[in-house]
Every structure is written in structure tokens, then in C-alpha cells.
Amino acid sequence: MSIHFSPARKRPASPDNINASLEVPRSFGSTPERGARKLGSPTISPSGLAEWWPVLETMSLSYRELLAVEQRAYLTGVSFQTELLASGMVDEVELYRALAAHLHLGFVDRLAPEQLLMRSHEAVEALRRPDGVHTVQALDGAGGTMVLIAPGRIDLFQMRRYLWRYPRLAERMSIAPPSVLRRAVRERARNSLLRIANGGLFEASPRFSARYVVTAWQGVVIGAFVATLGLSLFLWTAPSLLILHCFLSLAFFACILLRLVAGEAVRKTSGPPPLLGEIRAEEMPVYTVLVALYKEAEIVPDLIMALGRIVWPRSKLEIKLVCESDDRETLNAIRSQELRSYIEVIEVPPGGPRTKPKALSYALPMSTGEFVVLFDAEDKPHPFQLVEAWQRFRQSPDDLACLQAPLVISNRHESWISNMFAFEYSALFSGILPWLARRGLMLPLGGTSNHFRRAILERIGGWDPCNVTEDADLGVRLARLGYRTGTIAYPTFEDAPTRARIWLPQRTRWFKGWAQTWLVHMRDVPRLWRELGPTSFLVMQILIAGMLISALAYPVFVLTIAGLVSSMALDGPLPGAHNVLLAIDLINIVFGHGAFLALGWWTLPPTKRRGLWKHMLMMPPYWLLMSVGAWRALWSLYRRPHHWAKTPHKPSRSARAPLERGIPSRPNPTAPKPLHKAVSPPR
Questions:
Q1: Could you tell me which of 69, 279, 395, 651 has the fewest CB atoms within 10 Å of its CB?
Q2: Under 8 Å CB-to-CB from 135, ≥6 apart: which residues?
Q3: Residue 601 in contact with residue 614, Cβ under 8 Å?
Q4: Spatial distance between the Cα atoms of 595 and 263, rounded to a whole number of angstroms
């Protein structure tokens, strides 16, 4: 610990005399009365530039630039101090060092968590406060106690008056930068945060937790099914194969029908992006951006650049970069960047399953925004995405809990796998999910660009740390608990895997997570039927179980067709049952490929619809790869149910292009008007 006391350390002059000696004019929006009215509290009157000027003058800052900061603070509805720190004009440590010198108080720039006189659960509650951690008691270096303050919105005049009236308390009081105090409190809360992250959902709602893969009755049913299937294939091979193919065909045809219905709806409803309304910065709430990173050192610069393009008041934005505590390369890469005060690095300690939802659950209690959005490390969100989501939430009833932004693949031409991945994503995020949302049905979320009402997200237990597709699980859980999920138009750009050795583990994890989600929510089938309703129940079976079964069944159909055609070529006409089997499998393959192509084609923008024949040629090997991933997923679910297969990423070759296309170079009819400087991206 390092404690620096002001050398004078004397009783300050009377605050009335100090105030009278100021020669700086009272500037725009700086009076305590106006500040209190703007911030919505009659008891908090943060100081404006006029009262901060004696502190800032010692730091050689331009009064003209500071005046612009105060004007932005007035427009945004925050204190001058908050806007000043968010602007990046001053270093937080130097600002609070100068404040301590001005108030003749001690200054602490290093603080160990063991010095804080608070319990772990009290530290968690302190981190939840919207106004931040601002006052704690701590041990000083001499074995005594001190009062540490990290004022986020301070009334300097009242503070000087208080210190004048209580000089003995002033002797025990020191100032710490908010980030220093918050870091120590965060470490103090570490055990409680880890317990919440690992077991919060299981303790509150064990029926929604994937900690146990199957229940007793599910294990009995699965075992009986496997044993019966094996015995039937051995004793009655031909009839059993026919029955099995009919069952697999039902799942296959359900997926085909869903794609066709969604595709037809897309053809009738496609149109330009929605118009955004006028932005009033003072009405905009605090928005939390969560980004989970693991072994992502190479793409940290691209991530910081992409987040910097988000259009939102910096004084009302909090970005949490959530990393594993032993991922030193990523942490060092982040700290090598020049981070603003609204960016916080959260280190997740080891323990429990090492999964993305566990990391997010660890960070959620430290979030204070009214809304929370989740991005991946490789994401490049459209600058206006947060604005569109906020305006949709404002215009919708309170039961709208989540909005899913579309994901657009920006490297589709790098390989045949990324090309097919982009085709698949277009069908899902521009076809199926919007169609489900318009009908108020259960919507399985994508793994990123989910915008939540934070209060609802916490109410339903947050993410399941044991589920490796926490997005799909959360979509089902929201629907079961009576909340709606919608979609928005402004996308997030990201790169797809370009090689099979990277793509396959990712798809294996997705299939394994879908199986986990299906098993969790099928523990009580009658209750699931009542909570979802018949239509959403059917949609869940198609999108989660049906897609997995279809991937498992595809090679069965292909091999059966190949075997029967070879037999017909060598031995002549097939028996009647074999002809029926061949017809069923041919219909499955032809219509399955056709529905996939049709939906992807209808959802792609007209400028990207060239080369349909390439997709037709690439589809069989792509679907066979998906089948390999599905079969690997079943094995992984048995051997390592909670293992998270990390998808490596690299700096994008197209990192700038999608964002530059997303920011209009001339007036855009979809851009909000007027767009104040208070909400513009930083230079």
C-alpha cells in the first residue's frame, strides 16, 4: 500500500472565504440548483466547472475545453465530474491527487483488499450500487483506521464546509481514485462473486440448471431406447430400419417446413431498416456492455476500436472486459491499450466450469446499467445498435426482456466454409428468428449481441455456467417465465471460421449445448407444455431437438441411398420395402437441400445472391461436417459435458470494411435526428 498525505495537512481556510475569492465566472449549467434538478435529486448538487477550476487549474487544462465538457454534461444529464473523467482529458489518478491536495486530505493510490473493513457479501452489495463505491473504512499503514472516499459526484463547497466543521474526522479521511477503491472492493467480493457465478442459478432454480446432465427417469428412458433400438436392429433389421427412417424423417421434414414457412414470410416482409427516433441524451440510461475474452490477445486492438465506434454517451456507458485471471497474454494486451474510465477489466478467478456463461455470471453483479448487451471478442457491432435497442425497449411493454441483433459474416469469401457459414447465418438471423419474434414464439438466442433488461436478466437467474450454449437455454427460460424476445435490424459483424479444424469443435460445442438445453427443459414435460404453450413447445422441439436429430440422420440417409442404388445397379430391382426406404431418403435429401437453399437465398441481400450453384455444390460436404459435429457432440456430452471448446480468433482482414460501410458518409434517413455531440463516437 502507498499512502501519500498532502504536505500541508492543515485546517483549510473557511469555505465561504474561498468561494468569495474565486474570480472564475459561473459557467453554463454549473450552479448547484441546476445540477440537482438535472440529476433528479434535491440533495445531491455536484459542483460544476466554476468550483472545480481551482483544482483543474493546477493540471494545466484548457478552460475552453473544460467548458465544452460542462456543456456536454448538461446535455447528457450527468455531473461535470463524471463527464470529465469519461472524456479522457484527465488521468483519474492525477485528478484525485489534485483534489486531495486541494482539500488538504491524504491520498491513497494503492489499496490491498485485506485492508478493507467489510465482508465479502457487503462488498458485492457495494459493487451493485448505481453511484459506485464511494466510502469505506480501511486499515492504514500504522495499524489504525481511516475513512476512504472516492467521490463520483462531489459538491466541493459542501465538502469544504464539512471538513471545516469536523477537523478531527478530516485527519482520518483520505481520498482514493474510484478505480483503485473499486478494484480492492472487487477483490474483497471475489469469493461471493465466484459462489454466485458457479451456483447462483442452481441454488435458486435447480430445475433450470445443467449441472446434472440427465435426471433419473431421463437416464432410464434413454437407456431403454438405446437397448431396444439395438435389439430391434439385430432381430428385425428391415422393419426396424424402416421405422427408424420414418422417425428421422419426421424431424427432417419439420425442419424443412419451418425453413419454408419462415422464408415465405421473409419474401413478403423484407424492407429497409427501421427509422430511429430523436435522441435526447439526458433521457438515455446507463448501458452495460459485457465482453468475455479468453486467449484473445491478437484481436484486442480490433475489439477496442469496434467498441469505440458505439454511439452512446460515454458518461453513461460502462464496458466490462471479462477475462480469466490466468490469461496473462490477453490481460497484458488489454492493459497495453489506452483505456478510458468507463472500461473496466474484470478478472475471473479459477474454479468451477471454465465457460463463457460462468465468466458473464461473475461480471453481472458488478453491472449497474439499466440495459446489458453481450458481445464476443471478435464482434464489430453497428454504431447505432444500442440506440435502436434502447428505443425498442422504450416503445415496448415491460415484458420484452431481450432483443437479438442479427449477426452478419464479414469474411464470407475467405473459404468455402466461411461462405456456407454466412449463408447459414443469413437464414437464421434474417429469416427464422425474426419470423418467430413477430409471432411472439420461443426464440433461441444467438451467442452474442443480446440486449437485456438487466432487472429481468437477474430475476431469471442470469446465465447457466454449466450450459455450453447458454444463449439457447436463456431463450427457452425467458419464454417459460412469461417474457418476450424480439429482434432488431442493426447488425453485428463477425468473422466465421475458415478451416474445418476450427469450425468443427465450435459446431460440436453448439450441438452439445443444444442437447443439454433440451434435456434440462424436458425434465418436466407437462410443465414445459403449460409454460411455453403448444406452438412454442413445438418450435422448441424443431429448433433444438429437430436440428440435432437432422444432423445425426443426414449420413444415415446418404449411406442408405448409396447402398440401395449400388444394390439396384448390381442385383436389379429392389424389394418393395427397400423402394419405399429409397424414396423416403431421396425426398429428405432433395427437399432438405432445397429448403436450406431457398431460405438462405431469400434472406441474402440482392447484391450477395450471386453464385447459388456454388452453395449447391458445397452443401453436401458442409452437411456431412455438421453430422460429424453432431456425433462428436453426443460423445463429448457423455465424457465432458461441461467442457467449453474454445474457438480461436485472429485479427480480421475485413475489420474496418463492415464498420465503414455501417457508418453513413452522407445524411442517412435511418440516423437519429438530432444527433448531439454528447452521444457521438469518440474521435
A1: 395
A2: 147, 148, 149, 150
A3: no
A4: 9
Percent of the chain exceeding pLDDT 70 equals 88
Report yes or no: 472 and 517 within 8 Å, Cβ to Cβ: yes
> Model confidence over 162-210: pLDDT tens digits?
999 998 888 899 999 999 999 999 999 999 999 999 999 999 999 999 9
State the residue for C-alpha cell 415496448: 396
For the beta sheet containing 106-110, the strands, ordered from the edge strand earlier in sequence to the opposite edge, are: 2-4, 106-110, 173-175, 145-149, 135-139
Distance separating alpha carbons of residues 145 and 176, to the nearest angstrom? 15
Q: Taking Cα atoms as reference points, which of 178, 273, 249, 233 lies closest to residue 549? A: 249
Q: Please give the Cα distance from 383 to 305 (Å, whole number).
A: 11
The amino acid that residue 534 corresponds to is: P
Q: Could you give phi then psi for residue 451, rounded to 5 degrees? A: -105, 125
β-strands 145-149, 173-175 pairing? parallel
Residue 603 DSSP one-character state: H
Distance CA 152, CA 240 (A): 71
pTM of the model as a whole = 0.89
Beta strand residue intervals within 176-226, DSSP E: none
Task: Return the C-alpha cell found at 239.
Answer: 422393419
Q: Is the dihedral of CA 325, 329, 334, 336 positive or negative?
A: positive
Q: β-strand 380-381 against 492-494: which pairing, if any?
A: antiparallel
Backbone φ and ψ for 538, nearest 5 degrees, come out as -65, -40
Q: Which amino acid is at 197?
A: A
CA–CA dist 427, 422 (Å, integer): 9
Q: Which residue has the cell 478493507?
A: 116
Whole-number Å distance between alpha carbons of 146 and 149: 10
Half-sphere exposure of 318 (CA within 13 A, CB side): 23
**Which residue is associated with the grid cell 485546517?**
11
User: Would you state the cell numbers that stand for residue 84, as one nine-digit string?
Assistant: 470529465
The grid coordinates of residue 132 equal 459506485
The rounded Cα 254 to chain-centroid distance in angstroms is 31
pLDDT, residue 203, reads: 93
Condensed to tens digits (0 to 9), the pLDDT of residues 427-457 reads: 999 999 999 999 999 999 998 999 999 999 9
